[in-house]
Structure to design on (634 residues):
């Protein structure tokens, strides 16, 4: 294993990357490498929707990230979508190396409210834990307070805790400690 | 487990398949994707998809509606969700008409799709639960009706399942009370005719003319009292099964009529001029040895062979004594609750008595015996004394011990018993003893039996 690469896509406040790095360090026994920011890929913008195609950003992460990285987490501030869905908080390759989180809809400003930094931090951490959890084989959890529960709107993100439930947490620990499994 | 509900995404755009697949996999589903209708069908052949998301517009080859219809042909239980980029009422109506369960316009809200999927799966879970319960109920029904651990009976039950979907005539042979009608019901209710009528006709209970009108119906004015056209049992059983009990007892005329129905599946109502065609499966039952009846000239040979396509011979209860405790327990529970009596079971000693008895009336007799015991039982458990009257039954050789007395005394007692049974009728008593009347009189004199 060669650690986890954390990379901004487009402009992302350094502060936010710091919060995220701390949270990852708390939950995942992986060395973390910060890479210089990637540009937003050309052609990812969907003018009709005024959003960015998540799939294009995922593809870029897979292409540009170092080959030896066991996980790559991209963080962006632009709004993501896929053809089927009107928006995404984030996306991950299930049991694969790539994860992506968008901060766009985590800002209070997105909902016409005054900015609230602590809330943004909490939401970012929850979404990062969620998407990274998928890359380690965790599926959506029925425990609504677990970071792995499915959030389809911001209120559901807020009702989660900044942690995994016991079951999901134990599944992660097993994954990291079992001899057969590769991190 | 979400893994048990595989999902198929069919869309010509790779990005759509990929992203939708990834999103659903995160939710724990097994997801396959296909870029066109043809590939979707190939996948559907090998996997029983619970849900298929199908894009309405796919250029070249099959479009969404066609794909949906073909998938339905292979997997009628799959729920199809039609995806379209354009919300038009016409296409929505068409999709739903052709059998789509849902219709969504992309892009849709993540919450919308997540609720849609869970709503469909909730329904599917209920459906499969329902199917499982139905199966259980059917099994229970069957076991409730035919209780056995006897291997021969188990074979018969298996045979009833094997022949249930055929239209072939079944002939059930067995002593009275062995459950011939239950077996006939098992054949009918486990087959494709289960939803259709099961009509029972007891051939021995009716006179020839009554039976004839009962079976074939009659036209208005066919005989005195025929006030209106009336359908017979064969017509009432159309699509289903007619069970002709005690077929060995029908008259030669009816044998001929029945033969015609068996051969042609059509007949005339009494007094009628128009043929009536029916699709009826015939199950006949008899406690007689029909082959013997044929030899004796009392039963038509051709009818016998028509009836005897599939033969089921039910063993007498004494040939499956291991079932007696099971049946007894069952009847105790069933009858005590039906009669509102608080009888909880049957003692081992009482069971021993029942197992030792020969049951000439078979299961029906056992049922009646248990009912009588429950009615007279004074405590909550059937015990040996509750069946003491049964032990005196002379029909049970295992309970009949030869008393230690001279042979002459045995003969004297046999004669007295025969006279008692026949209420003093010497003619009948001598016949029962197998001697002629004058010999019986001689013996009465010799043993000084006051008659």
């Amino acid at each position: 294993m060669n650690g986890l690469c954390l990379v901004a896509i487009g402009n992302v406040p350094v502060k936010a990357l710091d919060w995220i790095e701390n949270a990852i360090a708390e939950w995942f026994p992986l060395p973390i490498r910060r890479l210089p920011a990637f540009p937003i890929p050309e052609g990812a913008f969907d003018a009709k929707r005024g959003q960015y195609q998540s799939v294009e950003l995922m593809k870029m992460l897979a292409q540009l990230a170092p080959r030896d990285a066991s996980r790559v987490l991209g963080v962006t501030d632009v709004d993501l979508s896929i053809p089927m869905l009107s928006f995404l908080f984030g996306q991950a390759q299930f049991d694969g190396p790539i994860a992506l989180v968008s901060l766009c809809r985590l800002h209070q400003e997105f909902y016409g409210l005054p900015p609230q930094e602590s809330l943004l931090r909490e939401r970012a951490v929850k979404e990062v834990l969620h998407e990274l959890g998928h890359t380690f084989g965790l599926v959506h959890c029925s425990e609504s307070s677990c970071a792995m529960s499915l959030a389809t709107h911001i209120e559901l993100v807020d009702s989660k805790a900044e942690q995994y439930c016991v079951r999901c947490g134990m599944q992660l620990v097993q994954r990291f400690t079992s001899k057969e499994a590769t991190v | 487990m979400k893994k048990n509900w595989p999902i198929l995404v069919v869309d010509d755009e790779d990005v759509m398949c990929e992203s939708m697949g990834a999103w659903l996999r995160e939710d724990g589903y097994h997801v396959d994707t296909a870029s066109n209708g043809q590939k979707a069908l190939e996948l559907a052949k090998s996997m029983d998809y619970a849900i298929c998301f199908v894009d309405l517009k796919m250029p070249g080859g099959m479009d969404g509606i066609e794909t949906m219809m073909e998938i339905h042909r292979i997997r009628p239980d799959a729920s199809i969700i039609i995806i379209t980029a354009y919300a038009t009422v016409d296409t929505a109506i068409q999709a739903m008409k052709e059998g789509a369960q849902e219709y969504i316009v992309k892009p849709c809200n993540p919450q919308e799709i997540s609720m849609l999927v869970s709503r469909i799966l909730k329904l599917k879970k209920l459906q499969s639960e329902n199917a499982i319960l139905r199966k259980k109920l059917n099994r229970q029904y069957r076991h409730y009706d035919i209780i056995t651990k006897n291997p021969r009976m188990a074979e018969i039950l298996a045979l009833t399942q094997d022949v249930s979907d055929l239209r072939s005539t079944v002939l059930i042979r067995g002593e009275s009370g062995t459950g011939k009608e239950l077996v006939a019901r098992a054949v009918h209710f486990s087959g494709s005719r289960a939803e259709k009528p099961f009509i029972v006709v007891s051939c021995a209970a009716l006179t020839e003319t009554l039976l004839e009108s009962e079976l074939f119906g009659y036209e208005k004015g066919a005989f005195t009292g025929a006030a209106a056209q009336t359908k017979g049992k064969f017509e009432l059983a159309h699509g289903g099964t007619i069970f002709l009990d005690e077929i060995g007892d029908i008259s030669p005329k009816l044998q001929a009529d029945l033969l015609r129905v068996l051969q042609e599946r059509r007949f005339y109502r009494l007094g009628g001029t128009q043929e009536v065609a029916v699709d009826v499966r015939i199950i006949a039952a008899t406690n007689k040895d029909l082959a013997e009846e044929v030899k004796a000239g009392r039963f038509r040979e051709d009818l016998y062979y028509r009836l005897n396509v599939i033969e089921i011979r039910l063993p007498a209860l004494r040939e499956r004594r291991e079932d007696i405790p099971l049946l007894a327990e069952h009847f105790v529970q069933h009858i005590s609750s039906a009669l509102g009596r608080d009888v909880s079971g049957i003692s081992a000693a009482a069971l021993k008595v029942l197992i030792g008895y020969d049951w000439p009336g078979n299961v029906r007799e056992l049922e009646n015996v248990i009912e009588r015991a429950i009615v007279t039982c004074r405590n909550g458990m059937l015990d040996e004394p509750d069946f003491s009257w049964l032990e005196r039954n002379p029909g049970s050789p295992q309970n009949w011990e030869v008393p230690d007395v001279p042979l002459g005394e045995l003969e004297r007692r046999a004669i007295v018993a025969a006279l008692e049974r026949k209420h003093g009728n010497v003619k009948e008593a001598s016949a029962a003893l197998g001697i002629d009347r004058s010999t019986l009189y001689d013996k009465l004199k010799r043993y000084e039996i006051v008659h």
In short: Chain A is about 35% helix and 20% strand.
